[in-house]
Amino acid sequence: MEITDTNITIRLFLSLLLGGLIGLERESHKRPAGFRTHILVCLGSTLVMLISLYGFSEFTRWTNFSRDPARLAAQVVSGIGFLGAGTILREGTSVKGLTTAASLWTVAAIGLAVGAGFYFAAVFTTALVLLTLLVLDKIEHRWLLTKDYDHLVVSVSDHPGQLGNIATVLGNYGIKITNVEITPSIEGNTIVHLIVAVPSNTKKEVLLEEIYNIDGIITARYNEGED
After folding, report:
1. pLDDT by residue, tens only, the chain of 227 residues
2. Exposure of 11 by Cβ count < 10 A (0-12 exposed, 13-18 middle, 19+ buried)?
3. Which regions of the chain carry the CATH code 3.30.70.260?
4. What long-range pairs does 92-101 form, CB within 8 A, spacing at least 24?
């Protein structure tokens, strides 16, 4: 089996394009693995597949030579898991980075498809991945998460242990924290964004009042319009 330099160039550039499209979406969300990482994973997978298919063609004339093109591809599929694991972070009760890890694994598969010449499968899979990340993400947050979860925004003064104090109050009410993001405010305070699962029998006004009474809490409110 032989392949021309032109065909190799086309496959590598297509791999760069497809991996870059998915990487741009991850980069826009400030994820650990972004634009360049997805491109490199896709390019590397494509190159491995090209080597597996065409890199050992000169040995095919050996009578005792046995070649399995899927062997190197299988190593890519299993090996990419180590890279994906590096994007997964645990913050308290929240686990972040699973979607990025999955996108890296899928990008590796797309790269293998491009290297094998399955252009339609690679392009169509990329389109489905972008649909999942861009469109289904909005549907998930608007119609699925918001029915059971609330977005709690708390402004706190810069003192150690404030997050622990908030978590203690929430724990007393049996409230589960699924995600936490901390950002600085213009006034120099700290804004804590919490995605919380509040039991139906909890009075939200009472909960906000108890959080507000914590020493160092400036404001506490629910963000109703957050997607």
Report:
1. 678 999 999 999 999 999 999 999 888 877 778 899 999 999 999 999 998 888 776 665 655 656 677 777 788 877 887 777 777 665 444 456 778 888 999 999 999 999 999 999 999 999 999 998 888 777 765 655 444 578 888 888 866 677 888 888 888 888 888 788 887 776 678 888 888 887 777 888 888 888 888 888 888 888 764 43
2. buried
3. 149-222
4. 92/167, 92/177, 92/180, 93/176, 93/177, 93/178, 94/177, 94/178, 94/179, 94/180, 94/195, 96/179, 97/31, 97/32, 99/133, 100/26, 100/31, 100/32, 100/33, 101/33
The domain defined by 149-222 carries CATH number 3.30.70.260? yes
Two tokens, residue 154: 């708390």
